[in-house]
Design goal:
Number of strands: 12
Strand content: 15-25%
Shape: globular
Strand order of the largest sheet: 3-2-1-4-5-6
Distance between the termini: 26 Å
Largest sheet: 6 strands, parallel
CATH class of the largest domain: Alpha Beta
Order of helices and strands: HHEHEEHEHHHHEHHEHEHEHHEEHHHEE
Number of domains: 2
Oligomer: single chain
CATH architecture of the largest domain: 3-Layer(aba) Sandwich
Protein backbone atom coordinates (compact mmCIF):
# COMPACT_ATOMS: atom_id res chain seq x y z
CA UNK A 1 0.00 0.00 0.00
CA UNK A 2 1.40 3.38 -0.99
CA UNK A 3 1.79 6.21 1.50
CA UNK A 4 -1.03 8.06 -0.25
CA UNK A 5 -3.39 5.14 0.45
CA UNK A 6 -2.66 4.93 4.17
CA UNK A 7 -5.63 6.36 6.13
CA UNK A 8 -5.01 9.66 7.93
CA UNK A 9 -5.62 8.14 11.42
CA UNK A 10 -2.95 5.51 10.69
CA UNK A 11 -0.54 8.21 9.58
CA UNK A 12 -1.21 9.84 12.95
CA UNK A 13 -0.39 6.59 14.74
CA UNK A 14 2.83 6.30 12.77
CA UNK A 15 3.79 9.82 13.88
CA UNK A 16 3.13 8.84 17.50
CA UNK A 17 5.24 5.72 17.06
CA UNK A 18 8.13 7.76 15.67
CA UNK A 19 7.76 10.28 18.51
CA UNK A 20 8.23 7.38 20.94
CA UNK A 21 11.33 6.27 19.03
CA UNK A 22 12.76 9.79 19.10
CA UNK A 23 12.36 9.93 22.88
CA UNK A 24 14.58 6.85 23.17
CA UNK A 25 17.27 8.04 20.76
CA UNK A 26 20.59 7.19 22.48
CA UNK A 27 22.24 10.25 20.95
CA UNK A 28 19.86 12.34 23.05
CA UNK A 29 19.68 10.34 26.28
CA UNK A 30 23.23 8.99 26.80
CA UNK A 31 25.34 12.18 27.19
CA UNK A 32 23.84 13.48 30.44
CA UNK A 33 24.52 10.14 32.19
CA UNK A 34 28.19 9.82 31.30
CA UNK A 35 30.51 9.65 34.34
CA UNK A 36 33.64 11.79 34.66
CA UNK A 37 36.87 10.29 33.32
CA UNK A 38 38.81 8.17 35.84
CA UNK A 39 42.52 8.38 36.62
CA UNK A 40 43.11 5.24 34.64
CA UNK A 41 41.57 3.69 31.55
CA UNK A 42 37.97 3.86 30.36
CA UNK A 43 36.70 0.72 28.68
CA UNK A 44 33.30 0.62 26.99
CA UNK A 45 31.41 -2.66 26.71
CA UNK A 46 27.95 -2.89 25.22
CA UNK A 47 25.36 -5.41 24.14
CA UNK A 48 21.94 -5.05 22.59
CA UNK A 49 19.95 -3.55 19.77
CA UNK A 50 20.80 -0.01 20.89
CA UNK A 51 24.48 -0.69 21.60
CA UNK A 52 25.87 0.92 18.43
CA UNK A 53 24.03 4.21 18.82
CA UNK A 54 24.79 4.26 22.55
CA UNK A 55 28.48 3.72 21.80
CA UNK A 56 28.48 6.48 19.20
CA UNK A 57 26.94 8.83 21.74
CA UNK A 58 29.77 7.99 24.15
CA UNK A 59 32.44 8.56 21.51
CA UNK A 60 30.92 11.87 20.43
CA UNK A 61 30.78 13.16 24.01
CA UNK A 62 33.97 11.76 25.57
CA UNK A 63 37.13 13.86 25.73
CA UNK A 64 39.65 11.35 27.11
CA UNK A 65 41.14 8.04 25.96
CA UNK A 66 38.60 5.34 25.18
CA UNK A 67 38.62 1.69 24.10
CA UNK A 68 36.05 -1.02 24.08
CA UNK A 69 33.82 -3.54 22.35
CA UNK A 70 30.09 -3.73 21.64
CA UNK A 71 27.91 -6.56 20.34
CA UNK A 72 24.97 -5.84 18.03
CA UNK A 73 22.53 -7.78 15.83
CA UNK A 74 23.45 -8.28 12.21
CA UNK A 75 22.97 -5.03 10.29
CA UNK A 76 22.62 -2.86 13.41
CA UNK A 77 26.14 -1.41 13.47
CA UNK A 78 27.46 2.11 12.96
CA UNK A 79 30.84 3.54 12.05
CA UNK A 80 32.78 4.00 15.28
CA UNK A 81 36.27 5.40 15.75
CA UNK A 82 37.54 3.83 18.98
CA UNK A 83 35.10 1.10 19.99
CA UNK A 84 35.13 -2.22 18.15
CA UNK A 85 31.90 -3.81 16.92
CA UNK A 86 31.06 -7.47 16.55
CA UNK A 87 27.80 -9.19 15.67
CA UNK A 88 25.83 -11.88 17.46
CA UNK A 89 22.65 -13.80 16.74
CA UNK A 90 19.13 -12.98 17.94
CA UNK A 91 16.84 -14.34 19.37
CA UNK A 92 18.68 -17.68 19.55
CA UNK A 93 22.46 -17.45 20.18
CA UNK A 94 25.01 -18.94 17.82
CA UNK A 95 28.79 -19.33 17.61
CA UNK A 96 29.13 -15.60 16.92
CA UNK A 97 27.35 -14.90 20.22
CA UNK A 98 29.84 -17.12 22.06
CA UNK A 99 32.80 -15.41 20.38
CA UNK A 100 31.34 -12.01 21.28
CA UNK A 101 30.86 -12.96 24.93
CA UNK A 102 34.40 -14.30 25.12
CA UNK A 103 35.75 -11.05 23.68
CA UNK A 104 33.72 -8.98 26.14
CA UNK A 105 35.18 -10.89 29.08
CA UNK A 106 38.67 -10.32 27.68
CA UNK A 107 37.96 -6.60 27.28
CA UNK A 108 37.54 -6.16 31.04
CA UNK A 109 40.43 -8.38 32.17
CA UNK A 110 43.44 -6.95 34.00
CA UNK A 111 41.82 -3.67 35.03
CA UNK A 112 42.77 -1.80 38.18
CA UNK A 113 40.87 0.19 40.79
CA UNK A 114 41.75 3.38 38.87
CA UNK A 115 40.06 2.12 35.71
CA UNK A 116 36.41 2.42 34.74
CA UNK A 117 34.03 0.34 32.66
CA UNK A 118 31.03 1.96 30.97
CA UNK A 119 28.52 -0.78 30.21
CA UNK A 120 25.88 0.05 27.57
CA UNK A 121 23.03 -2.41 27.97
CA UNK A 122 19.83 -2.72 25.93
CA UNK A 123 17.30 -5.36 24.95
CA UNK A 124 18.40 -8.22 22.75
CA UNK A 125 21.69 -8.62 24.57
CA UNK A 126 20.81 -11.97 26.12
CA UNK A 127 21.10 -13.82 22.81
CA UNK A 128 23.74 -11.59 21.23
CA UNK A 129 26.16 -12.33 24.04
CA UNK A 130 26.21 -16.00 25.06
CA UNK A 131 28.75 -17.85 27.18
CA UNK A 132 27.30 -21.19 28.31
CA UNK A 133 27.86 -22.17 31.94
CA UNK A 134 30.56 -24.75 32.64
CA UNK A 135 29.36 -28.15 31.50
CA UNK A 136 26.63 -26.74 29.22
CA UNK A 137 27.00 -26.86 25.44
CA UNK A 138 25.88 -24.17 23.02
CA UNK A 139 23.54 -26.69 21.37
CA UNK A 140 21.86 -27.40 24.72
CA UNK A 141 21.47 -23.71 25.43
CA UNK A 142 20.02 -23.11 21.97
CA UNK A 143 17.54 -25.93 22.51
CA UNK A 144 16.33 -24.53 25.83
CA UNK A 145 16.13 -21.00 24.39
CA UNK A 146 13.95 -22.16 21.48
CA UNK A 147 11.61 -23.96 23.87
CA UNK A 148 11.29 -20.90 26.12
CA UNK A 149 10.57 -18.63 23.15
CA UNK A 150 7.78 -20.91 21.93
CA UNK A 151 6.03 -21.73 25.20
CA UNK A 152 4.65 -18.28 26.02
CA UNK A 153 7.04 -17.52 28.90
CA UNK A 154 7.45 -13.87 29.86
CA UNK A 155 10.71 -12.04 29.21
CA UNK A 156 11.43 -11.98 32.95
CA UNK A 157 11.02 -15.77 33.12
CA UNK A 158 13.16 -16.32 30.04
CA UNK A 159 15.93 -14.09 31.34
CA UNK A 160 15.84 -15.70 34.79
CA UNK A 161 16.68 -19.00 33.13
CA UNK A 162 19.25 -17.41 30.83
CA UNK A 163 21.13 -15.89 33.78
CA UNK A 164 21.55 -19.29 35.38
CA UNK A 165 22.79 -21.00 32.23
CA UNK A 166 25.46 -18.36 31.64
CA UNK A 167 29.06 -17.57 32.51
CA UNK A 168 28.67 -13.84 31.67
CA UNK A 169 25.10 -12.80 32.61
CA UNK A 170 23.67 -12.23 36.08
CA UNK A 171 26.49 -9.91 37.20
CA UNK A 172 29.36 -12.11 36.06
CA UNK A 173 30.77 -9.59 33.56
CA UNK A 174 30.98 -6.92 36.28
CA UNK A 175 32.55 -9.35 38.75
CA UNK A 176 35.14 -10.20 36.09
CA UNK A 177 35.95 -6.48 35.71
CA UNK A 178 36.72 -6.03 39.44
CA UNK A 179 38.46 -3.99 40.87
CA UNK A 180 37.49 -1.49 38.16
CA UNK A 181 34.31 0.49 38.79
CA UNK A 182 31.45 -0.35 36.42
CA UNK A 183 28.91 2.30 35.39
CA UNK A 184 25.92 0.67 33.69
CA UNK A 185 23.66 2.71 31.40
CA UNK A 186 20.50 0.88 30.33
CA UNK A 187 17.76 1.42 27.79
CA UNK A 188 14.90 -0.67 29.14
CA UNK A 189 12.76 -3.02 27.09
CA UNK A 190 11.45 -4.77 30.21
CA UNK A 191 7.89 -4.22 31.48
CA UNK A 192 8.10 -2.33 34.81
CA UNK A 193 11.77 -1.54 34.03
CA UNK A 194 13.37 -3.99 36.47
CA UNK A 195 17.10 -3.57 35.66
CA UNK A 196 17.84 -7.13 36.80
CA UNK A 197 16.19 -8.45 33.62
CA UNK A 198 17.43 -6.04 30.93
CA UNK A 199 19.59 -8.19 28.62
CA UNK A 200 19.87 -10.63 31.55
CA UNK A 201 21.92 -8.10 33.54
CA UNK A 202 25.56 -9.00 32.81
CA UNK A 203 26.79 -6.18 35.07
CA UNK A 204 24.16 -6.21 37.83
CA UNK A 205 23.57 -8.43 40.84
CA UNK A 206 20.83 -11.00 40.39
CA UNK A 207 18.07 -11.42 43.01
CA UNK A 208 16.76 -14.61 41.37
CA UNK A 209 18.19 -18.06 42.00
CA UNK A 210 18.87 -21.43 40.41
CA UNK A 211 15.73 -22.62 42.19
CA UNK A 212 13.69 -19.91 40.42
CA UNK A 213 15.12 -20.96 37.07
CA UNK A 214 14.31 -24.61 37.74
CA UNK A 215 10.71 -23.73 38.70
CA UNK A 216 10.28 -21.88 35.39
CA UNK A 217 11.54 -24.85 33.40
CA UNK A 218 9.16 -27.08 35.37
CA UNK A 219 6.26 -24.67 34.78
CA UNK A 220 6.62 -24.98 31.02
CA UNK A 221 7.54 -28.65 30.95
CA UNK A 222 11.12 -28.19 29.76
CA UNK A 223 12.82 -31.23 31.28
CA UNK A 224 14.85 -32.76 28.49
CA UNK A 225 18.37 -31.61 29.42
CA UNK A 226 19.23 -33.69 32.53
CA UNK A 227 22.55 -31.90 33.15
CA UNK A 228 20.69 -28.59 33.44
CA UNK A 229 18.16 -29.98 35.90
CA UNK A 230 20.98 -31.42 38.03
CA UNK A 231 23.08 -28.22 38.03
CA UNK A 232 20.13 -25.99 38.88
CA UNK A 233 18.96 -28.38 41.62
CA UNK A 234 22.39 -28.25 43.25
CA UNK A 235 22.80 -24.48 42.76
CA UNK A 236 25.97 -25.10 40.77
CA UNK A 237 25.34 -22.22 38.36
CA UNK A 238 24.29 -19.60 40.89
CA UNK A 239 24.60 -15.98 39.71
CA UNK A 240 26.17 -12.99 41.47
CA UNK A 241 23.94 -11.91 44.34
CA UNK A 242 23.07 -8.47 45.77
CA UNK A 243 25.69 -7.33 48.27
CA UNK A 244 28.55 -9.12 46.52
CA UNK A 245 31.69 -7.18 47.44
CA UNK A 246 32.90 -7.04 43.83
CA UNK A 247 29.87 -4.99 42.77
CA UNK A 248 29.30 -2.64 45.71
CA UNK A 249 31.16 0.32 44.16
CA UNK A 250 29.30 0.14 40.86
CA UNK A 251 26.45 2.39 39.72
CA UNK A 252 23.53 1.94 37.34
CA UNK A 253 21.02 4.14 35.51
CA UNK A 254 18.00 3.44 33.33
CA UNK A 255 18.37 6.25 30.82
CA UNK A 256 15.28 5.56 28.69
CA UNK A 257 12.21 3.35 28.92
CA UNK A 258 8.76 2.68 27.48
CA UNK A 259 7.29 5.33 29.77
CA UNK A 260 9.43 7.99 28.11
CA UNK A 261 8.18 6.84 24.73
CA UNK A 262 4.55 6.79 25.86
CA UNK A 263 4.83 10.33 27.21
CA UNK A 264 6.41 11.58 23.98
CA UNK A 265 3.64 9.96 21.93
CA UNK A 266 0.97 11.50 24.15
CA UNK A 267 2.58 14.91 23.77
CA UNK A 268 2.58 14.52 19.98
CA UNK A 269 -1.10 13.55 20.02
CA UNK A 270 -1.91 16.65 22.09
CA UNK A 271 0.00 18.82 19.59
CA UNK A 272 -2.23 17.36 16.89
CA UNK A 273 -5.37 18.19 18.86
CA UNK A 274 -6.37 14.71 19.98
CA UNK A 275 -6.90 13.52 23.54
CA UNK A 276 -4.48 10.69 24.36
CA UNK A 277 -4.78 8.16 27.18
CA UNK A 278 -1.89 5.94 28.28
CA UNK A 279 -3.30 2.59 29.38
CA UNK A 280 0.02 1.29 30.68
CA UNK A 281 3.67 1.10 29.72
CA UNK A 282 3.99 -2.49 31.01
CA UNK A 283 1.17 -4.64 29.61
CA UNK A 284 2.00 -8.33 29.34
CA UNK A 285 0.15 -11.52 28.42
CA UNK A 286 -0.72 -13.54 25.34
CA UNK A 287 -0.95 -11.24 22.32
CA UNK A 288 -4.38 -12.48 21.31
CA UNK A 289 -5.73 -12.02 24.85
CA UNK A 290 -4.25 -8.52 25.16
CA UNK A 291 -5.94 -7.65 21.88
CA UNK A 292 -9.34 -8.62 23.29
CA UNK A 293 -8.82 -6.32 26.27
CA UNK A 294 -7.80 -3.43 24.02
CA UNK A 295 -10.77 -4.08 21.71
CA UNK A 296 -13.21 -4.07 24.62
CA UNK A 297 -11.93 -0.70 25.85
CA UNK A 298 -11.99 0.79 22.35
CA UNK A 299 -15.56 -0.39 21.71
CA UNK A 300 -16.71 0.90 25.08
CA UNK A 301 -15.36 4.33 24.18
CA UNK A 302 -16.95 4.19 20.73
CA UNK A 303 -20.34 3.04 21.97
CA UNK A 304 -20.65 4.62 25.41
CA UNK A 305 -17.87 7.23 25.80
CA UNK A 306 -16.60 5.17 28.75
CA UNK A 307 -13.97 5.28 30.22
CA UNK A 308 -12.99 8.10 27.82
CA UNK A 309 -14.83 10.18 25.25
CA UNK A 310 -14.21 9.89 21.53
CA UNK A 311 -12.45 11.04 19.49
CA UNK A 312 -9.29 9.95 21.27
CA UNK A 313 -6.23 7.77 21.01
CA UNK A 314 -5.19 4.98 23.37
CA UNK A 315 -1.56 3.95 23.68
CA UNK A 316 0.11 1.15 25.59
CA UNK A 317 3.52 -0.44 25.90
CA UNK A 318 5.00 -3.61 27.29
CA UNK A 319 5.69 -7.03 25.83
CA UNK A 320 3.09 -9.52 24.72
CA UNK A 321 3.89 -13.21 24.55
CA UNK A 322 3.02 -15.77 21.90
CA UNK A 323 2.59 -19.48 22.43
CA UNK A 324 3.83 -20.87 19.13
CA UNK A 325 1.65 -23.67 17.75
CA UNK A 326 2.28 -23.23 14.02
CA UNK A 327 5.18 -22.59 11.69
CA UNK A 328 3.92 -19.37 10.16
CA UNK A 329 5.52 -15.98 9.73
CA UNK A 330 4.85 -13.40 12.41
CA UNK A 331 5.62 -11.98 15.83
CA UNK A 332 3.85 -10.69 18.90
CA UNK A 333 2.94 -7.34 17.30
CA UNK A 334 1.46 -8.77 14.11
CA UNK A 335 -0.36 -11.44 16.13
CA UNK A 336 -1.76 -8.74 18.42
CA UNK A 337 -2.93 -6.58 15.52
CA UNK A 338 -4.52 -9.50 13.63
CA UNK A 339 -6.37 -10.67 16.74
CA UNK A 340 -7.45 -7.07 17.41
CA UNK A 341 -8.86 -6.74 13.88
CA UNK A 342 -10.83 -9.95 14.41
CA UNK A 343 -12.15 -8.76 17.79
CA UNK A 344 -13.30 -5.47 16.23
CA UNK A 345 -14.82 -6.99 13.11
CA UNK A 346 -18.50 -6.23 12.80
CA UNK A 347 -18.09 -3.10 14.88
CA UNK A 348 -15.18 -1.13 13.44
CA UNK A 349 -16.86 0.01 10.20
CA UNK A 350 -19.52 1.92 12.08
CA UNK A 351 -17.35 3.17 14.92
CA UNK A 352 -14.20 3.92 12.90
CA UNK A 353 -11.33 2.37 14.84
CA UNK A 354 -7.73 2.26 13.59
CA UNK A 355 -4.81 0.56 15.32
CA UNK A 356 -1.06 0.00 15.08
CA UNK A 357 1.32 -2.25 16.99
CA UNK A 358 5.07 -2.26 16.38
CA UNK A 359 8.34 -3.07 18.08
CA UNK A 360 10.48 -0.05 18.86
CA UNK A 361 13.55 -2.02 17.76
CA UNK A 362 12.07 -2.22 14.25
CA UNK A 363 11.73 -6.00 14.44
CA UNK A 364 8.85 -8.34 15.23
CA UNK A 365 9.82 -11.99 15.50
CA UNK A 366 9.70 -13.66 12.08
CA UNK A 367 7.45 -10.98 10.58
CA UNK A 368 10.17 -9.27 8.56
CA UNK A 369 8.73 -5.97 9.76
CA UNK A 370 8.38 -3.84 12.90
CA UNK A 371 4.67 -4.61 13.17
CA UNK A 372 1.45 -3.68 11.38
CA UNK A 373 -1.69 -1.53 11.37
CA UNK A 374 -5.35 -2.23 10.63
CA UNK A 375 -8.57 -0.43 9.80
CA UNK A 376 -12.07 -1.77 9.11
CA UNK A 377 -11.10 -2.89 5.58
CA UNK A 378 -7.97 -4.89 6.38
CA UNK A 379 -9.48 -8.34 6.92
CA UNK A 380 -11.70 -8.10 3.83
CA UNK A 381 -8.66 -7.17 1.74
CA UNK A 382 -6.90 -10.29 2.98
CA UNK A 383 -9.95 -12.47 2.36
CA UNK A 384 -10.17 -11.17 -1.19
CA UNK A 385 -6.76 -12.80 -1.72
CA UNK A 386 -7.96 -16.15 -0.41
CA UNK A 387 -6.59 -15.90 3.13
CA UNK A 388 -8.44 -16.81 6.33
CA UNK A 389 -7.84 -14.62 9.41
CA UNK A 390 -8.67 -17.48 11.79
CA UNK A 391 -6.40 -19.94 10.01
CA UNK A 392 -3.62 -17.36 9.99
CA UNK A 393 -4.01 -16.75 13.73
CA UNK A 394 -4.13 -20.47 14.52
CA UNK A 395 -0.92 -21.12 12.57
CA UNK A 396 0.94 -18.05 13.92
CA UNK A 397 1.02 -16.71 10.37
CA UNK A 398 -0.14 -13.17 11.15
CA UNK A 399 2.51 -11.37 9.10
CA UNK A 400 1.57 -13.20 5.91
CA UNK A 401 -2.07 -12.13 6.01
CA UNK A 402 -1.24 -8.55 7.06
CA UNK A 403 1.33 -8.36 4.29
CA UNK A 404 -1.41 -9.38 1.85
CA UNK A 405 -3.57 -6.58 3.27
CA UNK A 406 -0.69 -4.16 2.72
CA UNK A 407 -0.47 -3.04 6.34
CA UNK A 408 2.98 -4.16 7.56
CA UNK A 409 5.18 -1.43 9.06
CA UNK A 410 8.80 -1.53 7.86
CA UNK A 411 11.48 0.55 9.59
CA UNK A 412 14.61 -1.60 9.62
CA UNK A 413 16.75 -1.53 12.79
CA UNK A 414 15.94 1.62 14.78
CA UNK A 415 19.11 1.34 16.96
CA UNK A 416 17.03 1.68 20.11
CA UNK A 417 14.59 -0.59 21.97
CA UNK A 418 11.96 0.39 24.55
CA UNK A 419 9.68 -2.56 23.83
CA UNK A 420 6.41 -2.51 21.92
CA UNK A 421 4.23 0.45 20.98
CA UNK A 422 0.48 0.02 20.54
CA UNK A 423 -1.86 2.78 19.47
CA UNK A 424 -5.60 2.83 18.79
CA UNK A 425 -7.53 5.79 17.35
CA UNK A 426 -11.26 5.89 18.09
CA UNK A 427 -13.10 8.51 16.08
CA UNK A 428 -16.56 9.89 16.86
CA UNK A 429 -19.52 8.34 15.05
Amino acid sequence: MSAAEIPAPVKLLLRLYHAALAAADPMKVVPSFLPPPPRGRTVVVGIGKAAASMAKAVEDNWSGPLTGLIVVPEGAGLSLRKIRICEGSHPVPDERSVTAATELMKAVEGLTSEDQVIALISGGGSALCCLPAKGLSLAEKQHITRQLLKCGATIAEINTVRKHLSAIKGGRLAAHAFPAKVVTLMISDIPSDDPAFIASAPTLADPTSCANALMILDRYGIYNVPSVTEALSKGTWESIKPGDWRLTQNTQHIISSAWDGMQAAAKQAALEGLNCHILSDAMEGEARELSKAHAAIALSIANHNVPFSSPCVLISGGEATVTVRGEGRGGRNTEFILALAMALEGHSQSVRIYALSAGTDGLDGRAGAAGAWIDHTSLNQARSKGLSPQNSLDSNDSATILDAAGTLVHTGPTLTNINDFRGIVILAR
